[in-house]
Specification:
ATPase_OSCP/dsu; CF(1); 62% helix; four-stranded mixed β-sheet; Peroxidase, domain 1; ATPase_OSCP/d_CS; 8 helices; alpha+beta; ATP synthesis
């Protein structure tokens, strides 16, 4: 995974610089998300990696699958990635791009996994508390995982706050073993 990030970072930085220069951050987000979704498709990925296809044919196939939704710069990115045999990196490029965009816009995506669905009031309070702690705008999505028994796990980038009953029981078991 670290190797993929290392390989994808220069492409993501170049795309991000281009997007900033042209004022097209959201358009590039959409293009990269579409491309990442396409190369994530197993059948298309297998077809694109077929040894009989040239880099130009790989790039054209991917562009054709995306239809008219890609701008010319995105088509050029596909051509460069295909030429360098880096099309499988598109998902990682998209992820790195989104991280750079969020940092520029001072936002963070937070995923809250709870044992039960959060009420609107709980969601609002949690967003406000996270805004104060992280000092940035918070975009929160929530998931339900009943195996947590109670409480929640909050993931914001590298930060993970485990307030679940399952997590506390695991810590207690670890403490008892030592």
């Amino acid at each position: 995974m670290a190797e993929l990030t290392t390989l994808a970072r220069p492409y993501a930085k170049a795309v991000f610089a281009e997007a900033q220069e042209k004022g097209a951050l959201d358009a590039w987000s959409a293009d990269l998300a579409l491309l990442a979704a396409c190369v994530a498709d197993k059948q298309l990925a297998a077809f694109l990696q077929h040894p009989s296809l040239s880099a130009q044919q790989q790039a054209q196939t991917l562009v054709d699958v995306c239809g008219d939704k890609l701008n010319e710069a995105a088509k050029n990115l596909v051509a460069v990635l295909a030429e360098n045999k880096r099309l499988p990196l598109l998902a990682e490029v998209s992820e790195l791009y989104e991280e750079m965009k969020a940092q520029l816009q001072n936002t963070v995506d937070v995923v809250v996994t709870s044992a039960q669905p959060l009420s609107d009031e709980q969601s609002t309070k949690l967003v406000q508390a996270l805004k104060a702690r992280l000092q940035c705008e918070v975009r929160m999505t929530s998931e339900v995982d009943e195996s947590l028994i109670g409480g929640a796990i909050i993931r914001a980038g590298d930060l993970v706050i485990d307030g679940s009953v399952t997590g506390k029981l695991a810590k207690l078991a670890e403490a008892m073993k030592s």
